[in-house]
């Protein structure tokens, strides 16, 4: 157990032992470096960040970046060459591992080490990050940056062989002026090779960090032994010419933009970059001294000296005609005579946009133009306003500097791909023909509005068509209903004039027959009574006459009962006939729903017997097919009629219940009631009719009644889906 504990303690101590070699920190995998391994190293400061938040530290042949902890003291107190001891923790860094310093202690100072040469093939190398190298090249341009993560610095573009390098020096007092004096000179300097990277920790470029402008050593500040060689523009950089030697040229100024001068020579034009803003104007004839810088189409001149030797008329622009001949010339011959030339061209404006000018560093207005059948771009500073405005469709005359572009697909020799024109100002744009009012945008608007109106018209026609169809249907239904009502009225009249009148006549005849039977019985009984008085003491005759009188009374009772049955049947038929006629003549259900029809149909019956009518409805009423509503109404009317005419009720109640798929109807009275098992024959026809009607609806009927306890007729339809209206 003690041995195991000792092993664990020693292993923990070993795991957290500080790293003492810069090379060992650089060799850490990003995942291990991110864990914050303790670091204690010594080395020499190579370069201090202008903001003081870090420095490059060299130990042996390897260097690393040391970061300032958040809230810690700035490292601007240290200087290149000083020896320091750094304690902190490792960090994965953005490209290679770095150190977060907890403390930095000054331990001495030594001269900076000798740097190794930088080679072109190392430009995208991932193995030289933070290396101490020396570089030689020609200063091409300078930009001053203030603030930001890079602090105040001067960034130079230095041409090294065929590569353009970014070189950064701190912005100190007098540094800008010293760089301006060195502009276009070939220099040598020591620097830290920094790495430009993306967030995937991949190399995308290189930046060289120099401690001071005083570290620049001029290596070509000399004159040729035979004096300065002066050549016309079209002979610069020809075979046998050394581009590292200063050379002279001359030409007529066609445009001046800041430090840039555009010259027209005898057979070619050139763009000139001066060290300072030159004191020249368009029309000046100038002589230049400087260096030639190769570019993809034609060279650029880096002028260290600009001398005005005369003034002439401002150069006229060259009329440019883009046609098949020019395209053929560009495709088969490396003709560059129009590159950097002042040209004039007429074109139709197709579109106007904005872009960021890579050459100017400012926002530019881009004019997409068409000349004959060819499209090209003209660029104008965004702040320049054109009188009358630039609107697509206008015909323009453009004057500006022509810039040819090289084909990137055929790189084995020079092929001219196309061109664009740099406009100098508002005067370079002349509107020959204003844009027509009928622009593509307005045409689209009009077409859109027209299509919208057409769509609305179609929608309106569709709605009108639907409305007409609906109204036509309504009119057709109305006509059909009127025709049906007329036919029903005709049938009702026929029934009333024939069947109803016939039934009424039969009832009258039955009443007459009943009276004749009663009269005949009375006469026969009177004759038998007279005969009994005349019989005297004849007992046998008296018995016979008394028997005859009994037979007459029995026959009369039979005939009376038979006639009453027939009268009941006639009354039922008459009632059914009147109900049918009422329904044919446009019954209640034609004008109202079932609850209202029940109230309207039963109120006269209640008033007839002096009873109070109570109608109650539960659930949400819904319409049923006519046959269902008619049968329910007739059953209720039959039950109420029986109560009103025979039960003498004081209250007549109707309860109608609408459930999900069930309908129930109850007609209750508080009249004298009857014995259900001893129902009179005359009432059996009504009960039979109620049963037949409810059977048509696949329902059931239940009748409860007792003497002096009233009557309740209950109807129940278990499913109304078959009878509901669609």
Automatic annotation (TrEMBL):
The alphabetized UniProt keywords are: Kinase, Membrane, Signal, Transferase, Transmembrane, Transmembrane helix, Two-component regulatory system
Q: Where is the signal peptide, in residue numbers?
A: 1-15
Q: Which GO terms describe its cellular component?
A: membrane
- Origin, by domain of life? Bacteria
- UniProt xrefs under InterPro entries: HATPase_C_sf, HATPase_dom, Sensor_HK_TwoCompSys, Sig_transdc_His_kin_sub3_dim/P
| Keyword Protein transport recorded | no
TM ranges are 443-464
Output one GO MF annotation.
protein dimerization activity
Q: Which positions fall inside the Histidine kinase/HSP90-like ATPase domain?
A: 627-721
PANTHER family the UniProt entry points to = NITRATE/NITRITE SENSOR PROTEIN NARX-RELATED, SENSORY TRANSDUCTION HISTIDINE KINASE
**Protein name per its UniProtKB record:** Sensor histidine kinase LiaS
Q: Which organism is it from?
A: Pontiella desulfatans
Q: What is the lineage of its organism?
A: Bacteria, Pseudomonadati, Kiritimatiellota, Kiritimatiellia, Kiritimatiellales
